[in-house]
Amino acid sequence: MVFRLSIALLAALVIAGVVAPDAFGALSQRMQAATLGSAGWLYLVIVFGVLAFLVYLAFGRVGQLRIGGQDATPEFSRSSWFAMLFSAGMGIGLVFWGAAEPLSHLGAPPEGLEPGTAAAARASMRYAFFHWGLHPWAIYALMGLAMAWAQYNREGRGLVSDLLRPLLGQRVDGMLGSLVNVFAVVATAVGVATTLGLGAVQISAGLEHVAGVKDSFVVELLVIAVAFILYMTSSATGLDKGIKWLSNVNIGAAAVLLLLVIGLGPTGFIFETLTTTLGGYLNQLPAMSLRMTPFSQTTWVGEWTIFYWAWWIAWAPFVGAFFARISYGRTVREFVFGVVLGPTLVSFLWFSAFGGTALYQQLFGGMDLASALATGYEHVLFASLGGLQLSTLLSWISILLLLSFFVTSADSATLVLASMSSESQDDPPLFRRVVWGVMQAAIAVALLAAGGLQALQAVVIVAALPFAILLAAVLYSLRRLLLNDLASIEQEERELHRAERRWLQRERDAGNSDEELKQ
């Protein structure tokens, strides 16, 4: 039922986007406005609560518990594990927004600041850190840990409905559980398709900059077609080969690009930006986390923060399921620190390099990146790289990295969507993975046809709302599971300790000395 109903709903979305793109785009904008007006605050409260809960897990007693049981050992090395975490969790988004978001905030800053000022520049970097820092990775960590615990410690099926068993009991095996899984699958498919759409748009823009190929919808379709062939080929090779190998390639290519930009760009300015922005981020984290604008009635928070939170929530079932599959044998504390803290620090460095370079070029370098921004977010990165030495090489590395991230994200999502829409714990059949591979590409095409980035943003905000509420329920259920398992382990340890003391006392009563017992 989950597979059929999810495919039917998403197929209807695709048909609407292709057959009546203007009407579909207008409807999605109206639904977005209604969602932001009535439930925008809910996104902020839930995501802030998730981050607080992850801090509690990292430093609490439950941190010692291990995914798969206390004797479980990890399947992947730490380096491969981190590479797959980062590639699946962010990927295309970092490349797309790394330079574009801070530059956009400089011209249209939050908090009523004057555009183009030093205060606007500081805020632009601080909010870029905020949108790509602890909060999104906390969302991923919650879903990943909950799915891993249900699957490996409670012998679940790997479905989202299994996470609500402490709340719903046997009802998760019936119609209610199926509807929960449909919500999760639809939200995931839309979230992933949004990212794939962004990747196609930016690859097309990059080809215009470096190869003279005019940026157009047709080129975007060709990019999606090429990526489809690549990610379906990778998906057929399985997790241990295709995704693992591509993830390591992604990390290597991203590291090369990052180091080149730091070295060829304003190096001192980049690290000063990192330092000062980190201080401002930590100082204002609670205020930014709960900031709405009821008195000024501005739309900035809805267009940026709530869109991001909805995007991360829409990605959470897919990323969580993938993280669960690769995190067997990790302790809760290791999982939280590995998923939340490590990638956050890399994101901070990335935005300091690319965003800091773009801001320096705009404010002090005599470049007019604002004109590139006016033509579209996707053009900012390549315009910024054009102001550095080896600009052509940097641009080609960026395009190849985008394509590689595209393939990895779609490859991972194909596997996870097929698993989430199946009742079996085994790897899903190739046919089902092919269906989901086709559907992801089709959704991306439909959303681009219906209005590009605006349609992508609108649909993801609306689609993620039901799952945002489910996320709060998952938090409560996971807390109950972890505390129950911790209590059981501590009870077993107490009983073992008591049994040991009784044995020692019997041996002493039998006349054996402590020295003999030690031997």
User: Quick check: average pLDDT?
Assistant: 85
Specify Rg, calculated over alpha carbons.
Answer: 24 Å
Provide a count of the helices: 19
Cα-to-Cα separation, first versus last residue? 63 Å
What share of residues are in beta strands?
under 5%
Helix proportion: over 70%
Could you give a quick summary of the protein structure above?
The protein is mostly helical.
Fold and architecture overview:
This protein has helices at residues 2-19, 21-59, 78-89, 92-107, 118-132, 134-153, 165-168, 175-211, 217-237, 239-264, 267-289, 300-326, 332-363, 369-375, 380-385, 391-420, 430-449, 453-509, 514-518. Helix 6 (134-153) runs parallel beside helix 12 and helix 11 (267-289) packs across helix 13 (332-363). By secondary structure, it is mainly alpha-helical. The mean pLDDT is 85. 80% of the residues lie in helices and 0% in strands.
Give the topology, please.
Elements: H1 2-19, H2 21-59, H3 78-89, H4 92-107, H5 118-132, H6 134-153, H7 165-168, H8 175-211, H9 217-237, H10 239-264, H11 267-289, H12 300-326, H13 332-363, H14 369-375, H15 380-385, H16 391-420, H17 430-449, H18 453-509, H19 514-518
Helix pairs in contact: 1-2, 1-8, 1-17, 2-6, 2-12, 2-13, 2-18, 3-10, 3-12, 4-5, 4-13, 5-11, 5-13, 6-12, 6-13, 6-18, 8-9, 8-12, 8-16, 8-17, 8-18, 9-10, 9-16, 9-17, 10-16, 11-13, 12-16, 12-18, 16-17
Key traits:
single chain, 19 helices, 80% helix, 519 residues
